[in-house]
Amino acid sequence: MEIVKIDKRIENIDNEIAKLDKDIKKQKKYLSQLIKEKDKVDGNLALFTLESNVSIKLDSIDEEAYVKEYLQYRDEVSDKDFFNRVLPLLKKIPESNGSRYFKKFEVNVGIVSDEFLYHSFKDVANFHYLTNKNYKELAHALDFILIVTTWKGLNKEWRGLANENSNRRKELYEIIEFFRGIDKKVVFYSKEDPVNYEKFVEIAKRCDYIFTTAEEIIPRYKEECKNENVFVLEFGVNPLYHNPVGMRTIKKSNDVFFAGSWLTKYPERQKETKDIFNGVIEAGRNLKIIDRNFEINHPDYFFPREYAKYISPSISHEYLQKIHKLYNWAINLNSVKYSNTMFANRVYELQAIGNIILSNYSVGVNNLFPNVFIINDSLEVKDIINSFTDEEVFEHQVGGIRNVMSSYTTFHRFNHLLLCIGEKGRLPKHRVLVVVNEMNQQIKQQFESQTYPYKHIVTYSEFTQELKEQFEIIAFFNSKYEYGEFYLEDMINAFKYTDVDYVTKSSYYNGEKFIEETEHDFVEKIGDKYRSVFWSSKFQLKDFNNMNGETPLPNGYSIDRFEFNMTSNVNKNVVQPKKYELSVIVPVYNNGKYLLNKCFNSLKRSSIFKEMEIIIIDDGSTDEFTKLIVKRLEKHYPNVRAYYFNDNGSGSASRPRNKGAELATADFITYLDPDNEAVNDGYARLLEELKIDTELDLVIGNMIKLDNTKKGNFLYYKTVNEAIGSSIIKKPHKLLIETNMRAQSIQALIVKKSIVVENNLKMIQNAGGQDTLFFQELLLHSKKTKVIDLVIHIYYAAVAGSVTNTITDRFFNKFYILEKERLPFLKKHGLINVYMEKRFNFYFKNWYLKRLNMIEEQHLEGSIDTLYKIYELYKEYIVIEDKIITTFERLYKKKEYNQIVVQCCLN
């Protein structure tokens, strides 16, 4: 019996050895790839970077020797003294002195978390950090406890918590049961979903309320935890900790900053990291990498050798906040890419600090923060970071600060949490009284255009002490000055990250002249009360009356130079007649933040921007912010024209695109949607081809599509060349047959305007998917077309609110309108047979049937009725019988709508 046991143990040991051998071989293979990498970058480093010309060549060596050699190389070339060099600069950067706008929630919360989350929430309420030693002492003073997923806690006291069998996990379970035993609410918050859901879900099962950063995980929690109290809670910024205070006190570096890790377990992230890093270097900038795992010395965390010279050791989180203020540009990397709500908290924090962000793709980042630059190729980086003037860099930073301070602070987040768990929330809505020296139409319009919602306006003669006391904030407008739409919002936001009595603009514009003084720092005087905002309770009416011109005044803060000018109408464009080379038609409907930050900013990066006539057609937007942005662009740029439909919208992009073609004055036109981007100076390349060969009617490039599951490369150049063996198309009908009716985005082409006008080509109004049919019309009417091998634009398909992402019965109604026009088009051009043989079955199943289970119950029957009408249009032309489509017809005739969803949806 003992021999059997020994044999079994030997067998187990042999299995373990075999497993270890396999792991070592795998690691050696990875390391051998790293060894082959060469030091590709030069030693020309910038302001905060250590110069070095050290180079070490590695031969074929084993793992231990490789690690030793790598560390030796890194120690010699890396910038280990970086922190000591910049420390004197960091000491000059002031810190927030509190918040006047927000007050702590009078709630006592016991918390388990890591330092990042703790710093985000510590000033929002009375938080008490819990350990297995102090929780009983704190118990009766606490209103509830908050358990946040963590790997080690604040001071490593919760190291091992992710391991279900660890002592730390057992201790946490004891704490949870203790608090539930004394009727204290226990709240679970996972900031590690969806990747590490399994590691922490057992904790969630023991809690009363569950919060997650990833909304798509909510159904799993509800099912597995048998708990309906599950909510989404995104990251936010603590304005007392993450803020722009002092961001302009130090001359900034032109380098690009990254603080983070190299993670071998995310190969896609590795590739995207290299794309951004290489793009920065190719743009003539240098990197500054703070390696969070520098001291671990494990090959899983080694940055590739070509970046070693840019690396510095890890730095404490508190100092990192200030170090970011030494740079204009910073890099963010998302490990989770296809969540609407979960992405790196750095996206919020860097904007609050005042960085412009270069990031890899994330559905949530793109939806929520279109001002963040999504990098899909290293070539894009140069076009982005080298296309901004210093003034535009600062203005873009201010836009990011505005984004997070207005809506995404942890005061907002904690208020949401309180309401969800049945506690009393109280997010303040401070009202501002705007006092004008003289009321006229212009000042009324400027007041009404202010984006800050809680406002009231009076003349100075109506301003009394009694009225003053009814408002928390007092602002003064001068009828001779110009106040931008974000003036009040930006000024009042400063009260959120400072505890001051007033906010002013010490630096400002007077016409085209810039008056430079303090920006984003504390001040002891105001230059003019008409460019200042005051905390009402700190002043009397007589104080305001005595403020004439420059006035000494303690405890103030000066923000930036934007959204104010001492000379009104300075930005009004006097449009000079000009013959533009290209008309870019931009259809807009309730998507102003994308229009500004995606579409328009990408056009500004083009080398032919000034030769573009940008025609923005507002299709009846009901969103005031969108109207504001359109008017703002038209006002500031002489090559922007706007047209407004004031009827609440047509329901698709067809009407505004048709109107844009009608208004276009250039000989060539293209289209770009507000939520998409033009890249690689593609429009300039397309236009150049048309100029070189005047016989060309149409030039087409490639496209990248990013949705909520994957990245797709639509390489139309490859499609055409594989079909006809040439990049020149003279027989478009034959091409459509050879490519199985394959279409390309109309935003990846330039066409002669005459092709559209002379053939009376119109997009189908009120239809969905009209782009495809319009592209085929353009192709068939062009005598000579060329395709080029260059990505022209990026299509962000996962943008919330897009017609193709919003599924109701209207979706199918729109496509029924399209199909009623597509069928005669196919018959007219002799394409019906190839369409039915090559496209119809696939399209019907993967575009229409696939979406049925995305429809709400009340819209299901109507949607299926409409889909059957689409089927009936094509029924007599069906060439290849398909089992699923046949099942659809059979079940529809029985009116078994739910069974259609069950049996026919392809998901």
TrEMBL record:
GO molecular function, one term: transferase activity
Residues in Glycosyltransferase 2-like domain copies: 583-709
Keyword flag Transferase: yes
InterPro entries: Glyco_trans_2-like (IPR001173), Glycosyltransf_2 (IPR050834), Nucleotide-diphossugar_trans (IPR029044)
Keyword Electron transport on entry: no
Annotated coiled-coil segments of the chain: 3-37
UniProt name for this protein: Glycosyltransferase
Organism of this sequence: Lysinibacillus halotolerans
